[in-house]
Specification:
heterodimer; A: 341 residues; mainly alpha; MetI-like fold; 2 strands; 66% helix; B: 284 residues; alpha/beta; Rossmann fold; four-stranded antiparallel sheet; globular
Chain lengths: 341, 284
């Protein structure tokens, strides 16, 4: 219960109720032009993304009319019989991308930690430029490198994993049992595993650069606080750098995942086309959305072209979702406060 | 005192009984700096500084900004070398043993010579309780759950923070006020049982009430650890310290100790006119 005491002199007129005043800024013409200009350029990004999305999304209409909802459940992509579906394609896309992340995550994390915390300052700039260079190599070069240098060796790694862990369904390979009658070393060739391995090399610099940027920002005061307690360098990293960098670790990995989902040429060159739904990444054959589109684009009829673009729309949507999640995670973490991804 | 045994140190008097005298049987270590010089790159910032910091005594390092006090303090627990271009000469002896000797592990040295920084720096990802135990975790010391709880209480008591946080030890360290964070950092430094506690302007970012609480904490702690404090506040140096060293870097020359001695002498009858000018606020 509050009592309002009237302090105004007796007889004076009651003051009108106060209302918040509006504060208007007067902008000079040059300010106004600059503001409109920057707003227009900023809006352009949204317009382009929106245009790509709506163009691709528009193709869903004829596709769903022609092929129905089976488009999402059918695994075959058979232009001759006009049976088109993207279930195997979607699974293959995620499969290759996840393999790439499983391989690239520890490498990117340890590389970033090494450059950020262990290299002497004179070597740091050199290593950072090496990482940037790795990102600048065109994907066709990675694809050739993977095809001619990595694949002939990586298939033995796949075989080794199969030999010792083949009892686990994920590592099973048909015709991969060296003691079996149907053994065929080529069963390990051109597999999602090898494609994922090469894609991982391409996404390492992206993930590494984001993590590195965040690790370098871990506050010096907290680092010194840990050292002053008698911490080893690794103890300091665990207590200060990794908790601080958590947003960058997650965000960098998600960005890498987004990139891996859309990688085309490496997968096209290395992976043998196969639209069976099989969860055996060490085994030959597979398909991803990007390699599907690149492979069938040339001889598609107009209805099939719509279907390819609809598949592209699904990939577009997946990438947007992954990148949005990455941006949200990085922005919400303490480490993301000053980081741009 | 055996490892893990908890002594109720809060029973010690809240007000220093004899602020100008050393305690009879202090438990801290003797720290000796012997002809310390320091460089950043080619820039020499300290020139042959020697100072003896006995146990049971709070040593205050005073002097204008940029005279090398903080550098000197950071040399005392090997924080100086974290700066890539930093170099030094001379010896720092902890109970007679050179802490820069090759066979002296750096982590052990820093554990025995704790440090409280100008800006409170609790680990924000850890709770209040975890912050106190952080030093043990970082140095790989394991304690049973019950001992952990006792250590948290003991250190927070000694840091003068227990009463304010005992109900919320699980809250993040960053949720405390600046003064509370600084006392948490003192408690964290005490948890690894250091022999020496270095304080680099611990109150410069704090309000007067928090400053008073920390000064009271220093008065209680000086019987347990040797304390060296850098301060810009003359009154604070006079209140908390028993001995004082006046640093000065005259134009273009590296920092040196102009005069050191008992706080009483430095403030009441300084031998050097520059000391007199500084403590009386005529420059600086």
């Amino acid at each position: 219960m509050t009592t309002v005491i009237d302090l105004r002199p007796a007889g004076s007129a009651p003051e009108p109720d106060e209302a918040p005043r509006s504060i208007r800024k007067s902008l000079s013409t040059s300010d106004r032009v600059f503001r409109w200009g920057t707003t227009a350029i900023g809006a352009m990004v949204l317009v382009i993304i929106g245009a790509v999305g709506s163009f691709l999304g528009y193709q869903l209409v004829p596709t769903l009319r022609d092929y129905g909802l089976r488009f999402f459940t059918e695994n075959q992509w058979n232009p001759e019989l006009n049976i088109l579906g993207i279930s195997a394609v979607l699974i293959g896309t995620v499969e290759v991308a996840l393999i790439a992340i499983v391989i690239s995550f520890p490498l990117a994390l340890l590389t970033a930690l090494y450059i950020s915390e262990y290299t002497p300052p004179w070597a740091r700039a050199f290593l950072v430029s090496m990482i940037d260079l790795m990102a600048a190599i065109p994907s066709i070069v990675y694809a050739m490198w993977g095809l001619f240098l990595i694949e002939p060796h990586a298939l033995y790694l796949g075989r080794w994993i199969n030999e010792y862990f083949g009892w686990f369904p994920l590592f099973h390979v048909q015709g991969g049992d060296a003691r079996g009658a149907l053994f065929n070393l080529e069963a390990f060739d051109s597999s999602p595993f090898i494609a994922g391995m090469v894609v991982s090399m391409m996404v390492i610099p992206l993930a590494c650069a984001v993590m590195l940027g965040v690790f370098r920002q871990a506050p010096i005061s907290e680092r010194e606080g840990a050292y002053a307690l008698g911490s080893t360098r690794w103890g300091m990293i665990r207590a200060v750098v990794l908790p601080f960098g958590r947003g960058g670790i997650v965000g960098g990995t998600m960005l890498a995942l987004g990139r891996a989902l859309g990688e085309t040429i490496v997968v096209l060159l290395i992976l043998s086309l196969n639209t069976d739904i099989k969860f055996r990444p060490l085994e030959i054959g597979g398909i991803t959305t990007a390699s599907l589109i690149a492979n069938y684009f040339g001889e598609a009829t107009s209805g099939q072209l719509d279907a390819l673009l609809a598949a592209g729309f699904v990939l577009f949507a997946m990438t947007i979702v992954v990148n949005t999640i990455a941006a949200v995670i990085v922005a919400r973490s303490r480490s993301g406060a000053q980081t741009e991804i | 005192m055996t490892e893990g045994e908890i002594v109720n140190t809060f029973a010690a008097p809240a007000v220093d009984p004899a602020p100008t005298q050393a305690y009879a049987n202090p438990t801290g270590a003797h720290l000796d700096a012997d002809r310390i010089s320091a460089w950043f790159g080619t820039n020499k910032v300290l020139e042959r500084v020697s100072l003896s910091m006995p146990p049971g005594t709070v040593t205050a390092l005073i002097g204008p900004s940029g005279c090398g006090k903080s550098t000197f303090l950071r040399i005392l627990n090997r924080m100086h070398e974290l700066v890539p271009s930093a170099k030094l000469a001379g010896e720092v002896r902890l109970n007679g043993v050179d802490i820069y000797a090759a066979d002296n592990p750096i982590t052990q040295t820093r554990k025995r010579i704790g440090m409280v920084f100008q800006k409170p720096n609790p680990f924000p990802a850890m709770s209040i309780g975890e912050n106190v135990l952080a030093g043990l975790k970082l140095t790989g010391t394991r304690l049973a759950r019950r001992e952990q709880a006792e250590l948290i209480e003991d250190c927070l008591q000694r840091g003068g923070l227990w009463a304010e946080v005992k109900e919320r030890l699980g809250d993040p360290g960053g949720s405390l006020s600046g003064g509370q964070q600084q006392r948490l950092c003192i408690a964290r430094a005490l948890a690894v049982r250091p022999d020496v506690l270095l304080m680099d302007e611990p109150c410069s970012a704090l309000d007067p009430t928090s400053t008073r609480r920390i000064e009271e904490t220093i008065a209680i702690l000086r019987n347990q650890v040797t304390i060296v404090i850098v301060t810009h506040n003359m009154q604070q140096a006079a209140r908390v310290s028993q001995q004082c060293a006046f640093f000065l870097a005259e134009q273009g020359t590296p920092g040196q100790i102009v005069e050191s001695g008992s706080t009483k002498d430095i403030f009441e009858k300084p031998r050097d006119p520059r000391t007199s000018d500084y403590v009386n606020g005529r420059f600086g």
